[in-house]
């Protein structure tokens, strides 16, 4: 059972993830030719590589929405079958959406520098997610937990990216493609650093086992 600050943080994360994930569902109208509030730069990406871009934009929100509930220890302990089922959905969604993102990255609306940031993110996203799944199958649960935290830190980049857009607009980047040269990095690197620092802090807090003579 989560308590205090961590429970608040988890619910905040879940709320933001579900809100951004539901907003992204407007892309489900795109195959029917309806572009609701879709930036012109993003529309250009979809028109150039529709299968890759839509594989990403339609599937990634599933990972974003499912992910937070995997971190609630109450669900993990009381409903282990649900945790495993949601875990498989999360891994499949990240893998398909990650491959779509990797294929769409060279066509990113922000150009090659933005594309490089998104491609790096896609490779790390797929690698940590599949690594976490493998660790669970091998019953290496410490490694599984760590890699899933890194994976979701990157998934949550979809939220931090959208939260950062107004700041970049205030700094004079007037369109999403202009800002995305930065956003392709600033959306996820801080999240990954936070997880790494948290992992180090946890490791330092863990009591050292002294072998009794
Ligand atoms: C974590 C790895 C991710 C990578 C590598 C990635 C990559 C990309 C790329 C390259 C684009 C095209 C952007 C451009 O042309 O500037 C894009 C757009 C988009 N991505 Fe992702 N993305 C990731 C995660 C997510 C997640 C978790 C979501 C869930 C909501 C998401 C939803 C979208 C949507 C809806 C778009 C269309 C543009 C928009 O509405 O902002 N992505 N992504």
Structure, explained:
The structure is a single chain. The relative contact order is 0.11. Helix 7 packs antiparallel against helix 10 (about 190-205). The chain has one domain (about 5-205). It has helices spanning about 5-25, 40-50, 50-65, 75-80, 80-105, 110-135, 140-155, 155-170, 175-185, 190-205. It is about 75% helix and about 0% strand. The chain has about 210 residues and is an all-alpha fold. Protoporphyrin IX containing FE (HEM) binds near residues 101 and 125.
Structural class by sheet pairing and helices? mainly alpha
- Give the N-to-C terminal Cα separation: 36 Å
Note the overall shape: globular
Name every ligand kind in the structure: protoporphyrin IX containing FE
Number of domains: 1
Poorly predicted sequence stretches spanning 5 or more consecutive residues: none
Radius of gyration: 18 Å
> How many DSSP-defined strands?
0
Helix content: over 70%
Instruction: Give the strand content.
Output: under 5%
SS summary, helix count:
10
Q: What is the overall pLDDT average?
A: 95
Largest sheet: none
Order of helices and strands: HHHHHHHHHH
Tag the structure with descriptive keywords.
213 residues; single chain; binds protoporphyrin IX containing FE; mainly alpha; 0% strand; globular
Provide the fold topology.
Layout lengths: L3 H21 L15 H9 L1 H17 L6 H6 L1 H25 L7 H26 L3 H15 L1 H14 L5 H11 L2 H17 L8
In short:
The chain is 76% helix and 0% strand. The chain is mainly alpha-helical.
């Amino acid at each position: 059972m989560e308590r205090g600050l961590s429970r608040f943080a988890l619910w905040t994360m879940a709320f933001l993830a579900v809100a951004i994930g539901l907003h992204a569902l407007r892309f489900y109208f795109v195959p029917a030719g309806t572009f609701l509030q879709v930036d012109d730069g993003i529309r250009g990406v979809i028109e150039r590589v529709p299968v890759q871009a839509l594989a990403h934009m339609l599937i990634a929100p599933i990972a974003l929405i499912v992910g937070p509930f995997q971190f609630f220890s109450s669900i993990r302990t009381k409903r282990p079958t649900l945790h495993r089922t949601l875990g498989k959905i999360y891994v499949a969604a990240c893998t398909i959406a990650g491959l779509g993102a990797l294929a769409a990255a060279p066509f990113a609306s922000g150009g090659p520098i933005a594309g490089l940031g998104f491609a790096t993110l896609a490779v790390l996203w797929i690698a940590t997610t599949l690594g976490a799944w493998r660790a669970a199958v091998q019953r290496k649960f410490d490694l599984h937990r760590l890699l899933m935290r890194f994976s979701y830190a990157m998934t949550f980049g979809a939220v931090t990216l959208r939260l950062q857009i107004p700041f970049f607009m205030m700094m004079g980047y007037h369109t999403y493609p202009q800002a995305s040269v930065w956003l392709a990095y600033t959306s996820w690197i801080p999240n990954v650093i936070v997880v790494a620092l948290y992992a180090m802090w946890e490791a330092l807090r863990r009591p050292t086992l002294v072998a009794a003579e």
